[in-house]
């Protein structure tokens, strides 16, 4: 027994010695033979490139007051790399429940009603989105909402969920909410390399509610981001516009450029974009995108094999976007908006039916005469830009189309506000002189008995100054008849009517009546032929003439400038983000000039007379500044009348021109108080009542 035990001890000792010898040899190999190689492995590092997002440039008014600025917010972001295959719908549903419990909104642009039975959202505002949805789903444009719902369920697996052996159908409410997110994910190109922003600018209180349930929400994170903030959201929303995501269809349509790291960017205009970038969608945000969009930077991050960051190098510095300074005066803009709204309500509350009570919408345009700079572009009804994303459905469905930019995009019959253009053309062409008299007997008999239009009253023998003052139709019938439509159209265009104003934003360029315009007009489809009576109707701003409020203001400014028509702009200057460099400064540009000083002086006398003793006397008879004005009461074709009012001041040396249009407002003089409020704010609401330093940036 002792021998056996001794032998075992010897064997174990030998084995132990062998093992230790092997370990020693291996250790010697590691230290001596492979030491350098292992040391190199220990020091082996990996580098990644990170994009440094450039700040978007801000938008200011002409006096340096902020309109659109940047602030820090918190976004809910979903990263596909961490989503387990087949769990997307369930993760989204959990996330939606958390957001609902926190009273948070999320991004949902699916143009289907929120509740079953599902229907397409009504209204013109959704027609494009509905067509885009059908295209995305591969269904015909005549497909019904039920067809679209079925296709959404099929595409995103939204028929049922839960245990494979005992699945549960998605409730209608669950389907609708998940489908809205999945559709938006596709539109934004959600992929392994492109994360999806589920919600923006959530409350700080919501962050822990998401973070503490991260184990149930793989791929979901809350990150800090730059949020666009509209300081006074109700001021000039149609002009400022909005930003939004770069959608897949826009990305696909753009040219592509290869980045140094092998990734691809879209080339849109003068800038390049990643798939998850924000881009200007409308208004100034879109028009000046090339200035507002900054240039992203890059940094190289070096980590060791343990994942520790050992070096950070900024390879390319980010360049913030430039600051865009608009020509708008935000305070004057607010005055114009508030006055327009209050005067429309006044008409609704105090006027009789068919005499202004039906007033419903309108616009105001204010232009600086000598520069062409737009000072105010007001639209009613309007909306709050800061609530655009959150309340889009309610805004889009609002009465009288609050999203419609009436100041630039609407086209109205000008009525008698067109008469100064006819007077100017007749005087400048030699058709009439300041002493020419036409006899107004109330009824116009040139085409009797077939056609006998009339005036508001019998003015007797009247010259051009008094014809403007009293808005005599018969004088302008005769002037237009003798001048002819070609000469009338020539001078109308040279005064800025029916031609582009030059503004950087989309606009309705309108049209001035002519044989060609009438023949192409749907309103005259039953009678496209040009008749002798058409020219006299054109002479009082009727027939097929349609003009935007901006065009009316520009035309009025041209009258005040003695025929010098300026290019209209909404861009005053562009500054670097830090204001240490001026990138662009607006220089007034003359686009046309009618050389007829005596004619313009005569028209001015008529428009001043209209303010003092004529159609606008109730508002401007005793005004401390001389105002040149003209009213208009154009027929709409439905038995009601729009109100139009144009004016410039001071008449002796004009500074600003104003055009006001109110739909269904009846007589033009009824909206003259809007122009008066604008003049009051411009001339008397500044320090010392002086506008000497008007337009300078605030310190």
Automatic annotation (TrEMBL):
UniProt domain Penicillin-binding protein dimerisation: residue ranges: 52-312
Keyword Cell inner membrane: no
SUPFAM superfamilies: beta-lactamase/transpeptidase-like (SSF56601), Penicillin binding protein dimerisation domain (SSF56519)
Main location: membrane
All residue ranges annotated as the Penicillin-binding protein transpeptidase domain in the record: 362-679
Coiled coil (residue ranges): none
Gene Ontology CC terms, in alphabetical order: plasma membrane
Protein topology in the membrane: Single-pass membrane protein
Molecular function terms from GO: penicillin binding; peptidoglycan L,D-transpeptidase activity
InterPro entries: Beta-lactam/transpept, Beta-lactam/transpept-like, PBP_dimer, PBP_dimer_sf, PCN-bd_Tpept
Keyword annotations of the record: Cell membrane, Cell shape, Cell wall biogenesis/degradation, Membrane, Peptidoglycan synthesis, Transmembrane, Transmembrane helix
GO biological process, one term: peptidoglycan biosynthetic process
Source organism, top-level taxon: Bacteria
Location in the cell: Cell membrane; Membrane
Family the UniProt entry places it in: Belongs to the transpeptidase family.
Protein name: Penicillin-binding protein
């Amino acid at each position: 027994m002792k021998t056996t035990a001794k032998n075992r001890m010897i064997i174990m000792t030998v084995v132990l010695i062998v093992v230790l010898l092997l370990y020693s040899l291996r250790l010697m190999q590691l230290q001596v033979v492979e030491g350098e190689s292992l040391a190199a492995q220990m020091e082996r590092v990996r580098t990644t490139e990170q994009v440094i997002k450039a700040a978007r440039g801000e938008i200011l008014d002409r006096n340096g007051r902020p309109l659109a600025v940047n602030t820090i917010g918190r976004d809910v972001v979903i990263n596909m790399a961490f989503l387990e295959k087949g769990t997307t719908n369930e993760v989204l549903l959990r996330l939606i429940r958390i957001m609902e419990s926190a009273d948070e909104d999320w991004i949902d642009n699916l143009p289907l009603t929120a509740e079953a039975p599902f229907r397409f959202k009504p209204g013109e505002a959704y027609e494009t989105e509905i067509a885009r949805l059908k295209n995305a789903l591969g269904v015909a444009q005549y497909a019904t909402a039920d067809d679209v719902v079925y296709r959404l369920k099929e595409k995103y697996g939204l028929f049922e969920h839960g245990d494979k052996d005992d699945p549960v159908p998605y409730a209608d409410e669950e389907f609708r909410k998940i489908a809205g997110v999945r559709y938006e994910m596709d539109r934004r190109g959600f992929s392994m390399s492109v994360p999806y922003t589920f919600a923006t600018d959530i409350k700080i209180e919501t962050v822990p509610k998401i973070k503490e349930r991260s184990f149930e929400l793989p791929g979901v994170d809350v990150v800090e981001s730059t949020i666009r903030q509209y300081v006074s959201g109700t001021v000039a929303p149609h002009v400022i516009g909005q930003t939004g995501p770069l959608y897949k269809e826009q990305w696909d349509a753009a040219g592509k450029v290869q980045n140094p790291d092998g990734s691809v960017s879209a080339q849109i205009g003068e800038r390049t974009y990643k798939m998850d970038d924000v881009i200007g969608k409308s208004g100034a945000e879109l028009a000046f995108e090339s200035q507002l969009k900054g240039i992203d930077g890059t940094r190289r991050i070096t980590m060791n094999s343990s994942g520790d960051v050992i070096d950070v190098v900024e390879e390319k510095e980010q360049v913030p976007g430039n600051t865009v300074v608009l020509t708008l005066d935000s305070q004057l803009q607010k005055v114009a908006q508030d006055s327009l709204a209050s005067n429309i309500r006044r008409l609704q509350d105090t006027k009789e039916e068919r005499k202004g009570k039906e007033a419903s919408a309108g616009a105001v345009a204010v232009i600086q005469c000598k520069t062409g700079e737009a000072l105010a572009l007001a639209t009613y009804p309007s909306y709050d830009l800061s609530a655009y994303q959150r309340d889009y459905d309610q805004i889009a469905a609002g009465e009288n189309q609050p999203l419609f930019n009436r100041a630039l995009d609407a086209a109205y019959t000008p009525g008698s506000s067109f008469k100064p253009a006819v007077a100017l053309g007749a005087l400048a062409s030699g058709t009439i002189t300041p002493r020419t008299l036409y006899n107004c007997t109330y009824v116009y008999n040139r085409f009797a008995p077939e056609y006998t239009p009339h005036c508001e009253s019998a003015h007797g023998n009247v010259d051009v100054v008094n014809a403007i003052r009293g808005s005599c139709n018969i004088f302008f019938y005769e002037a237009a008849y003798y001048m002819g439509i070609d000469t009338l159209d020539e001078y109308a265009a040279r005064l800025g009517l029916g031609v582009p104003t030059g503004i950087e934003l989309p606009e309705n360029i309108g049209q001035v009546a002519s044989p060609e315009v009438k023949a192409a007009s749907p309103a005259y489809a039953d009678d496209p032929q040009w008749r002798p009576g058409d020219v006299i109707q054109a002479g009082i701003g009727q027939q097929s003439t349609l003009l935007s409020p901006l065009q009316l203001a520009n035309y009025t400014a041209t009258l005040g400038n003695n025929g010098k028509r300026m290019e209209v702009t909404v861009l005053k200057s562009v500054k670097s983000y830090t204001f240490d460099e001026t990138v662009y400064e607006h220089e007034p540009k003359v686009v046309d000039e009618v050389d007829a000083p005596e004619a313009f002086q005569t028209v001015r006398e008529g428009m001043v007379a209209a303010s003092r003793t004529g159609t606008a006397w109730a508002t401007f008879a005793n005004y401390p500044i001389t105002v040149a004005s003209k009213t208009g009461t154009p027929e709409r074709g439905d038995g009601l009348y729009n109100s139009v009012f144009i004016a410039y001041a001071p008449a002796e040396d004009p500074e600003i021109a104003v055009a006001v249009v109110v739909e269904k407002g009846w007589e033009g003089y009824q909206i003259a108080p809007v122009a008066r409020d604008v003049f009051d704010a411009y001339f008397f609401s500044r320090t010392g009542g002086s506008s000497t330093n008007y337009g300078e940036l605030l310190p």
